[in-house]
Design goal:
The structure holds two protein chains of two kinds. Helix content of chain A is 18%, strand content 23%. Chain A has a single domain, classed as Beta-grasp domain (Ubiquitin-like (UB roll), Roll), CATH 3.10.20.30. By secondary structure, chain A is α+β, with helices and mostly antiparallel strands. Chain A has a five-stranded mixed sheet, covered by helices on one side. By secondary structure, chain B is of the alpha/beta class. Chain B has a single domain, classed as Cytidine Deaminase, domain 2, CATH 3.40.140. In chain B, the strands form two sheets. Chain B has a six-stranded mixed sheet, with helices on both faces. Chain B has a two-stranded parallel ribbon with strand order 1-9. Classes of the chains: A alpha+beta, B alpha/beta. Chains A and B meet through strand 5 and strand 6 of A and strand 4, helix 2, strand 5 and helix 3 of B. Strand 6 of chain A pairs antiparallel with strand 4 of chain B, so a sheet runs across the interface.
């Protein structure tokens, strides 16, 4: 079982938990397990196309999994995963309203 | 409910926007009960006039600092250097923090910077997810 740290923004979607103990041999399996128990997390992190949003960062023991094997990165017992949605935006597109 | 910002902190926010001009600045505001207490400047890893992304490592560190100080994350701020202080489509698409205020500092009129705050939910169409929260600057 790995430990997944839940940031405050996602806690309402998991019943308020700060951490979850989750089964899964890879980062992708751990996420799927969380989505299955807490479907609202999927709604917040996954795009309409079914991909993990590219502005959501996942750290395995403080290492960005994009620098490892992304969702195929193996997860061992007692590893810690952190889910961290980015703080991002900007004026790039036209205003949503004048 | 309003977002109350003491005047020195409001000046600090505008100063950050001006220092990072022409790129967008970004950071966080910690406080309590809707009153800003600390401005945490962050690095925009995009270093762009059109986009901001808070350095994820700094994001983690600042969120921990706010927590350790017994404060709440009141707002995520960024500047619009050429457009009004209103959320863009990108701002809505990337608003992962619906419980937090998004404060925008506009430098479109350089002599009269504008600060406006919003709650943003990621909705379609994007304008449906935007709720303005009055900003009160206290002397």
């Amino acid at each position: 079982m790995s430990t997944v740290r839940i940031p405050p923004v996602l806690r309402p979607a998991v019943g308020g938990a700060r951490e979850l103990s989750v089964e899964g041999a890879t980062v992708g399996e751990v996420l799927e397990s969380i989505y299955s128990d807490h479907p609202e997390v999927r709604a917040q992190l996954v795009t309409d196309g079914g991909e993990l949003h590219r502005f959501v960062n996942i750290y395995l023991n403080d290492e960005d999994v994009r620098m490892l094997d992304w969702l195929d990165t193996p997860v061992e017992d007692r590893d810690t995963l952190l889910i961290l949605p980015a703080m991002a935006g900007g004026a790039s597109a036209s205003p949503a309203h004048p | 409910m309003s977002l109350n910002i003491p005047a020195p902190l409001a000046r600090d926010l505008v100063d950050h926007a001006e220092r990072d001009f022409p790129n967008e600045c970004c950071g966080m505001i910690g406080g309590r009960d809707g009153v800003a207490e600390v401005v945490y400047r962050a690095t925009n890893i995009e270093a762009s006039p059109f986009m901001y992304v808070i350095d994820p490592r700094e994001q983690l560190r600042i969120m921990d600092e706010i927590d350790d100080a017994g404060l709440d994350l009141l707002a995520i701020y960024h500047s619009h250097t050429r457009s009004v202080a209103y959320p863009s489509r990108t701002d809505v698409e990337l608003a992962f923090f619906p419980q937090v205020h998004y404060l925008i500092i506009s430098l479109a009129e350089r002599e009269t910077p504008d600060l406006r705050a919003f709650r943003i939910a990621r909705t379609t169409p994007p304008e449906d997810g935007i709720t303005e929260v009055p900003v009160v600057v206290n002397d």
